[in-house]
Each structure stands twice: as structure tokens, then as C-alpha cells.
Design goal:
Strand order of the largest sheet: 4-11-10-9-8-5-6-7
Bound molecules: pyridoxal-5'-phosphate
Number of helices: 14
Number of strands: 16
Largest sheet: 8 strands, mixed
CATH superfamily of the largest domain: Type I PLP-dependent aspartate aminotransferase-like (Major domain)
Structural class: alpha/beta
Helix content: 40-55%
Shape: globular
Number of domains: 2
């Protein structure tokens, strides 16, 4: 890789061109604006802070520090805190109806780190990964940072268009991996239907790629029935999970379920990257999930909270826009995906919305190529139902100003 030099006053500092070309995530930039006084934000993908189990967590952490401070504060194994790994292995075995061995589970600093480690283990710079269009920006960012070539495949109402992928594979496309957010996708809210899950696993076997199933929203299913992961249907699958949406993202605890041949290389890469995930965070989560009754009740509370907000926003948008805005029907996760049917460009709508005190993310931001001009992502998690109704009214006023 040639060494490039930064221009101007940074002239003497070398810079990896892959890093130099990285753009800041549009959403992270927008979060700065979202914090303005009075602004109603439908932009950031933050989980609902009022649903964090603060009191319970405080009790668990206090107990840990009182009884076993060494466990929570000392260096720990790279693979993760063993009781937590055992819990994840049991959970994943139940979910996919096949045994997941303890040594296949790696606890990571959020599922974002798992994606980074897996991508860098599988790919050299210049290799190809199929991504979703529209797709999760954090994935696009981490894969670009690794110098990976991204090939977008569209997402429709049933999730990743696996039929489209099959046609491209038959025509010669040979990706190392396919990245897909299978349940309540970020950004479109869609869920990969079961026949497509089966077909994707079969395509992975046939063409020799790895499915990287990114599933942090699995438990935010409003009907309380998580979907069977792609791993239920095949072996060439890495499943990524997270406690960011069910407990709290600040703890930075996620995981990867790895096919056996990937275990050693991914664990070694993690060892090089950060030694291990926060011992305190892992022990705290382990303490929370150990009480099964409490955990089930907590998931019910979180699902009900998100479901109420999703319905409030969908109803309010339906009232103000009617048929001019179509929405995916909210069945889980944190996002509504809208499409204006009257030719509105959401990138043009955004500055007017900001003037009126509401912010969202235009759909074009989630595309690697052209497209998505009339679409937008609306995150409901951090607002009250009244706040969401007001946000819809502000959007209506912004839209009225734009359409004249
Ligand atoms: C699809 C998807 N994957 C991964 C992540 C990262 O989650 P974590 O906090 O577990 O790193 C997010 C966060 O928004 C996400 O939407």
C-alpha cells in the first residue's frame, strides 16, 4: 500500500489511504443537530433510554463489586466471560433449533466489532462483499475501512432480494460474503421472509460465500416471536447479536456465533485488537440474564414500549399525509421507512424540516449508488407518543412549505 501524505500543516503525517477516504457517518453528524434545544429527532438510531434497566443494573453491578471485584475489574479471556458465553450458546441453540457449541461464541465490543473482525478475517482489500440497498451505514463504513469492494443488492418488502442475488451469482458474481440485517432491518424495517432465509443459506453452500447475518433487533419483535436465524438452514453463516437494543448500547456487549473454521482466526484478531471486551459490562449482563423470569418480563416491557411508539408514529403520519406517504407496517425494531408518492425529494425536505424543529434521515444516505430520493428513515424509539405526533405535524408543515 503506498504511503500518502496529508496536505498543508499535516504534511509530515503518513495516512493510510483507506482511512483517508473514509467519510464521517451522516447519522453521527446529524446527531449533533438533533441535540439542539426543542428539536424533535427521528434521525439517530438510539435505543429508548427510559427503557434501560437502570435500577436492576445498579443492583447487579453493586453486588458484583461487593462479592467478586476481581471478576468484574481484572483482565479476562479474549473469548469472553464464560457464563455469558454459555448463556448465548444456549439462547442461540434454542433459536435456531441446532446446537451451538460454547467455543463458537465470541463476546465482542458490540456487534459492530464482530462485523469488523469477521470482515477482516474473511477478506483482503479488494475482495467483494454483497451489501443491502438501502443498507446499514455502520456496515458500509466498516467494510470500506477494510478496503472491501461493496456490491449492493436491493431490499424489498420481504428483506434482501435473494432472487436478485441468485441471478447475479448465476451471472458470475463471486462475493466472499453477503451482509444482511435479517430482522427489522436498519434502515427499512423489513424482515427477511423464511423461504428467502432458506434460499440464502442454500446459495451460500452452492457458491461458497459466507452469510454474515447481522441480527441486533431480533428480540424487538412486537409479537414476541423472534424469527429463526439463517443459521437454522445452513452452516456457512456467521450470526451477530447484541445487548445494545435489549439492555443498553453503552455497555458495548455483543457477540458472534462463528462456524468452527473461523473461531481461531477471529479470536486471534480480537486478541490483537483489544485483548477482550469489558469485563464489567459482560459480568453485569450475565447477572441480568441469569434471572430468567426478570429477563422475560424485561423483554416484554421493551417490546411493548417500542410497539406503542411505532404505532403512534405510523398513525400520526397516516393522519397528516394520507396516501402521499407509504410506510412499512411496523412489526419490530426501531425504524419506520417512508416513501413519498407525490415526487417529494426527502433531501430537499430535510432543511425545511430542520427549520421547523424536526429531523430525519433521507433515504439516499443509505444507498451506495443512486436511488432512494423519495424515501426517509424515521426512528421512533427516543420519543414519547405525544412527541411523535408533534414531529408528524412539523413534518407536514415542512412538506407543505416544500410543495408550495
Ligand atoms: C444493523 C446493525 N448492526 C449493528 C449495529 C451495532 O450495534 P452494537 O451496538 O451492537 O455494536 C447497529 C446499531 O445501530 C445496527 O443497526
Amino acid at each position: 500500500m503506498p504511503v500518502t501524505l496529508l496536505p498543508g500543516p499535516f504534511l509530515d503525517f503518513p495516512l493510510n489511504p483507506l482511512v483517508g477516504r473514509l467519510e464521517s457517518s451522516a447519522i453521527r453528524d446529524m446527531l449533533a443537530v438533533a441535540g439542539r434545544p426543542g428539536m424533535l429527532s427521528l434521525a439517530g438510531g438510539l435505543p429508548a433510554g427510559d427503557l434501560f434497566p437502570v435500577d436492576r443494573l445498579a443492583r447487579v453491578v453493586a453486588g458484583l463489586l461487593a462479592t467478586d471485584p476481581g471478576l468484574a475489574l481484572q483482565y479476562g479471556p479474549t473469548e469472553g466471560h464464560e457464563p455469558l458465553r454459555a448463556w448465548i450458546a444456549a439462547y442461540e441453540s434454542l433459536r435456531c433449533g441446532r446446537e451451538v457449541a460454547l467455543d463458537q461464541v465470541l463476546v465482542t465490543a458490540g456487534s459492530q466489532q464482530a462485523l469488523d473482525l469477521v470482515a477482516r478475517t474473511l477478506c483482503s482489500p479488494g475482495d467483494t462483499i454483497v451489501v443491502e440497498e438501502p443498507g446499514y451505514l455502520g456496515a458500509l463504513q466498516v467494510l470500506r475501512a477494510a478496503g472491501i469492494r461493496l456490491v449492493p443488492v436491493p431490499v424489498d418488502a420481504d428483506g434482501l432480494d435473494v432472487e436478485n442475488l441468485a441471478v447475479r451469482l448465476a451471472a458470475g458474481l463471486r462475493p466472499v460474503a453477503v451482509h444482511t440485517v435479517t430482522s427489522f432491518q436498519n434502515p427499512s424495517g423489513t424482515t427477511l421472509r423464511e423461504p428467502r432465509r432458506r434460499m440464502l443459506a442454500a446459495l451460500a453452500d452452492r457458491y461458497g460465500f459466507v452469510v454474515v447475518e447481522d441480527d441486533p433487533y431480533a428480540e424487538l419483535c412486537f409479537d414476541g416471536r423472534p424469527r429463526p436465524p439463517v443459521r437454522s438452514f445452513g452452516d456457512r453463516v456467521v450470526t451477530l447479536g447484541s445487548f445494545s437494543k435489549t439492555v443498553a448500547p453503552g455497555l458495548r456487549v455483543g457477540w458472534a456465533v462463528l462456524p468452527q473454521p473461523l473461531v481461531t482466526p477471529v479470536v486471534r484478531l480480537k486478541q490483537a485488537a483489544d485483548l477482550h471486551t469489558s469485563a464489567l459490562g459482560q459480568a453485569a449482563i450475565s447477572g441480568l440474564v441469569a434471572d430468567r423470569r426478570w429477563w422475560r418480563g424485561h423483554l416484554d416491557t421493551v417490546r411493548a414500549g417500542y410497539s406503542r411508539r411505532a404505532t403512534a408514529l405510523a398513525d400520526a403520519l397516516g393522519d397528516v399525509f394520507g396516501a402521499r406517504l407509504t410506510l412499512n407496517s411496523p412489526s419490530g425494531g426501531m425504524f419506520l421507512w417512508g416513501r413519498f408518492t407525490d415526487g417529494t425529494s426527502t433531501a430537499e425536505l430535510l432543511p425545511r424540516a430542520l427549520d421547523r424543529g424536526v429531523i430525519f434521515v433521507p433515504g439516499v444516505e443509505f444507498h451506495t449508488g443512486p436511488g432512494g430520493e423519495g424515501t426517509l428513515r424515521l426512528a421512533y424509539a427516543t420519543n414519547t407518543p405525544d412527541g411523535l405526533a408533534e414531529a408528524a405535524r412539523r413534518l407536514r408543515d415542512a412538506h407543505a412549505g416544500l410543495r408550495g
